[in-house]
């Protein structure tokens, strides 16, 4: 199997969607509104992970295209918990993709403590041999949820999914700290939004803005 | 005053330093070690902010070059508090810049709650009219410190430095939540480092990695 | 008139199309075929040029959206003259835009000596206030045509469209040299294509390839 | 041999030098002068090519560091033949590298017809284990020389260095056409330079400029 060739439209899809979703941020800034999107990352699932997951979930390689929904992945990070519904609405309203599925792991936190909002969309890519429809998983989360998820992911890899009680407890406390930070941020949000309007108007230095524009 | 021309070597300096410091991250990953650097941002101070600060601090425009140390700014974000000394050491050991000053706002938190480690370096830029030595401020902080600092900066702009008591209190609680997250992360660090080695070895999907490579 | 806001969907359109057309190149390389696309550039027309052209062509500012077709511009550069029809076909076949107009300044060279193939397409952009349909001009040309066009454009600016006879003659000879280079390249094309397949297979160093991937 | 690790400082070197040399262009534009640099590309030699060349030139793998001067390669493209001496001077004057060798294949065209100016420099890279001095080859050439060189390189690969007479002749004619284009450009240069100053002042649309800034 020529993986580079197989994954090529997936790479094209995430490259396009990264530009498309990042564009929102500039539009909000330009109209002096708080942007619900802090930054956007994208990846195509590495071949090792694909093989691993296919084995674990018993997916035949010739069914990957329809049965593995996260070959192409986009992650949208938000400052505040209540930016998330705004991002969901933006995506639902797009005319250039079709919504396939939504999973709300914020309302229903996973047993592990994982929180994120997942959307699966079908996105058409124009290739040199015509249009190809690609499944893309979009994960929407706060910075704090993202921080925690990265760590949980690492630890699960280390322990191959069987976390010792002590690690599980530590992870739990970090999750609570992340949750608390989200809560405090929500309370302070009104103040910040007002401030950011001024901020934008004054065109003051902003490292973070630069980061997402590259 | 032709600001674009005046700031041009500063822009060149931050562009070069961004590439230089980001390079560390790849080197750590390549040797399967935890990278003390999560991501790096850079900016040249906007003209409006320069004028504002010059007025406030009574700096003449023809002395900006020597008296305003943060015209060129680099920010290095770390996952863990104890990554910070590692980054400081990396910068102290560089042969392509001269250390001018260090300020430790982590050991001595600012009254406002601000925490970060600041280094000012003198960095030579080769221009079309010869070498120019440029002051650059490098701020080193954790993700949580950075999150808080961004918010505090916005609020200070809104209230022009005179925060109402209520806002100050909310900001304080957010700062504590950020601090707590840093603490929990420190405790979990050993586990994560081990995990990240495996992580790196297995070349598993990593959005965050991709983000800093662009 | 808030130009930054007005031009914002045009900027988004060219950012998206740049990624989309560049993607073709990688697809051709991946399948070891000669890429008809060498590189792709994009720009939004600068405000000074818009005002200039609006005055010259008597276009009202509230009609820019429909009457100025090159506010958003994409340029596709090809190695060989006969790569151009291949690119035209790729664009005609896309499902994510609507072809509005084509102008063939290669079959019918402009009096000035200008050669290029122009396509105007209507491209939908998803903004924070819903879908917007944007006109985009796509210019397709060889490297030699592009080299000449850049120079002619500069000279026209200098002389405000009224070139002295001597300059016009020099420009003519440069145009002939560019045309001759295109001719020689066409003759050598078969050889090169064969060679490039080997080239790709051997995954040999290729600066030019890297250039377009950024 | 861990090639990724071995080549890592070379990759860092070319990343830094690309930013450094591209910076010149913006500086010239900012001061409304013709830029002698049109664009800059960079590459680390692919492993297959390294092995190939090591075998051909009888270089031991543990001597690559000192005996293969083009592991790290930078290419600077110029519009005009007489931009080349200006670029050479800029590089000779830099304080952040040491000139090791120069080879002038423009004054002394290679038998094959290859024209380019080569400089080999020793460039210090700061790594996580301290400073490393790296050899970098910088090739300086016009757009027309570059076009021809790309083709010659491809054809040599196809025929493994043994070009049939017919191919050699075609290549020769293409080389003459490229040379002629350079000649015509040289004659028109004065006009163009004047025009480009106006061009820059009016801040008129410039695709090519955007290309190198990414």
UniProtKB/TrEMBL annotation, chains A, B, C, D:
Q: What is its EC number?
A: 2.7.6.5
* First and last residue of the signal peptide: none
**Any single biological process term in GO:** guanosine tetraphosphate biosynthetic process
| Keywords of the record | ATP-binding, Kinase, Nucleotide-binding, Transferase
Instruction: Look up the record and name the pathway of this protein.
Output: Purine metabolism; ppGpp biosynthesis; ppGpp from GTP: step 1/2
* Residues of the RelA/SpoT domain: 42-163
Q: Which CDD domains match?
A: NT_Rel-Spo_like (cd05399)
Q: What SUPFAM superfamilies does this protein map onto?
A: Nucleotidyltransferase
The GO terms describing molecular function are: ATP binding; GTP diphosphokinase activity; kinase activity
Query: Looking at the record's lineage, which domain of life comes first?
Result: Bacteria
Tell me which family the UniProt entry assigns to this protein.
Answer: Belongs to the RelA/SpoT family.
Q: How does it assemble?
A: Homotetramer.
Q: What is this protein called?
A: GTP diphosphokinase
Q: What is the lineage of its organism?
A: Bacteria, Bacillati, Bacillota, Bacilli, Bacillales
């Amino acid at each position: 199997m020529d993986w580079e060739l197989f994954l090529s439209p997936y790479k094209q899809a995430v490259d396009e969607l990264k530009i498309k979703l990042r564009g929102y941020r500039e539009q909000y800034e330009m109209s002096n509104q708080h942007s619900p999107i802090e930054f956007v990352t994208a990846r195509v699932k590495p071949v090792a992970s694909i093989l691993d997951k296919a084995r674990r979930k018993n997916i035949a390689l010739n069914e990957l295209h329809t049965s593995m929904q996260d070959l192409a992945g986009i992650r949208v990070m938000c400052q505040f918990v209540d930016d998330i519904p705004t991002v969901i609405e933006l995506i639902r309203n797009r005319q250039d993709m079709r919504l396939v599925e939504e999973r709300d792991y914020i309302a229903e936190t996973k047993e592990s403590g994982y929180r994120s909002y997942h959307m699966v969309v079908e996105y058409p890519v124009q290739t040199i041999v015509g249009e190809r429809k690609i499944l893309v998983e979009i994960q929407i989360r706060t910075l704090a949820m993202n921080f925690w998820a990265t760590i949980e992911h690492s630890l699960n890899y280390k322990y191959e999914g069987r976390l010792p009680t002590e690690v599980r407890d530590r992870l739990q406390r970090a999750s609570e700290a992340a949750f608390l930070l989200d809560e405090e941020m929500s309370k302070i949000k009104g103040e910040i939004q007002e401030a950011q309007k001024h901020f934008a108007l004054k065109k003051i230095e902003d490292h973070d803005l630069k980061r997402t524009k590259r």
